[in-house]
Amino acid sequence: MPETQLTSATQGHITPAMQRVAEREGLAPELIRQEVAAGRLIIPANIHHAALDPLGIGTVATVKINANLGNSAVTSSIEEELEKLHMAVHHGADTVMDLSTGGQLDETREAMIQASPVPLGTVPIYQAVAEVPSLEQLTVDKLLEVIERQAQQGVDYMTIHAGVLQEHVPLTKHRLTGIVSRGGALLAHWMVIHHRQNPLYEQFDELIRIFRAHDVTFSLGDGLRPGCLHDASDEAQFAELKTLGELTRRAWAGGVPVMIEGPGHVPMDQLEMNVRKQQEVCHGAPFYTLGPLVTDIAPGYDHITSAIGAAMVGWYGASLLCYVTPKEHLGLPNAEDVKQGVIAYKIAAHAADVARGRKGARDRDDALSRARFAFDWNEQFRLALDPETARRMHDETLAEDVYKTAAFCSMCGPKFCSMRVTQQVTHAVERDASIVVGK
């Protein structure tokens, strides 16, 4: 049978991808192999994705972020999606997902795979539904054909909503926002129409065969994730999670790596419990969360409401944080929205790494702080997460080169800069001390 990163690791082999992950993480290759073998670390690396620079997702690694891209039936083109891809990767996205639902789906995905150095994921049911006249006419064979086609193209991981079962759907009836996952809602409707169990659950062994043949990673989807604070941590969400734990063991037994997708809207006081429960129920498989958003009242600012939750779950043990853009709930994000989402989530992921006490995580913070105190503005810009924005904001009021070494900015001016005053105090204390010693 074809080998995957998981089967290689369980057989004691360190692959080139594992070597690369070890190099990027500053860890020993043998530790990477052990974590992959245990299922706690994944390396999404489809054998057909030639442009890929492999990376690891798991608690032993730095916290990673994902950027959702993709067209819709209303707007966007291949060129626009490639622009979004470039924007996302340039600003630090570790993975991307092509969630296209409009036209030219195969062509858009092919262009993105060829251009992307980071792992690319999809939700294949979107394309399967787009290629049939109606949901009623979606067959199991069609669904499997689309999944295999995407695997052959080079998709590194796929969201598979195999945990949404017939018996789970009635559990959502008391929710305020119902089933907010597109994949989950489509499958729930399909099951109601056909009076059949979830085909992705029934055909899971066939999915394992396809994924193993191309080394595709399962991203087991949270089709019943809460779409508002009211619905968080309910019976439906945790019933699906229990099924995902079962499917995780089945995938591992078939040699296919797994990560688990997590909730979208969760109050802050429930975040730690959600992470702990996922890690227990799903046997330590990496956790991939959408946000979570910690309040529902800020449309247009949900990159902020969700980055708060993302930083916290990253601290508690989530391994991949799926960004939310300012356009969440409002429209298809453009390139600038993608940038805003990525920057917000790079902040969240870095804050989580610092909170975890990861070796070297705070080095950049300390270096930037030293540059601030030394009034080395150019070094501050260089170390900033978004150097262009930091420089632009400084230069809006003090643009001339002479101000790049000035001991103040336009916030306090030369008279009220606390750091400048502190330096004067320090010099005075040192001078007085030397005088006392001299006496």
Globally, the shape reads globular
Q: Supply the number of helical segments.
A: 18
Largest beta sheet: what is the strand line-up? 3-4-5-6-7-8-9-10
Count of β-strands: 10
Which structural class do the helices and strands define?
Answer: alpha/beta
Per-chain topology:
Layout: H1 5-10, H2 16-25, H3 29-38, E1 41-42, E2 57-58, E3 64-69, H4 78-90, E4 95-98, H5 105-115, E5 120-122, H6 124-130, H7 140-153, E6 157-160, H8 182-194, H9 199-202, H10 204-214, E7 217-220, H11 235-253, E8 258-262, H12 271-281, E9 287-290, H13 302-316, E10 320-322, H14 335-355, H15 363-373, H16 377-383, H17 387-395, H18 418-438
Parallel strand pairs: 3-4, 3-10, 4-5, 5-6, 6-7, 7-8, 8-9, 9-10
Antiparallel strand pairs: 1-2
Task: Describe the overall structure.
- It is a single chain.
- The protein has 439 residues and is an alpha/beta fold.
- The chain has 18 helices and ten strands.
- The chain has an eight-stranded parallel barrel, surrounded by six helices. The protein has a two-stranded antiparallel ribbon with strand order 1-2.
- The longest helix is centred in the C-terminal third of the chain and has 21 residues.
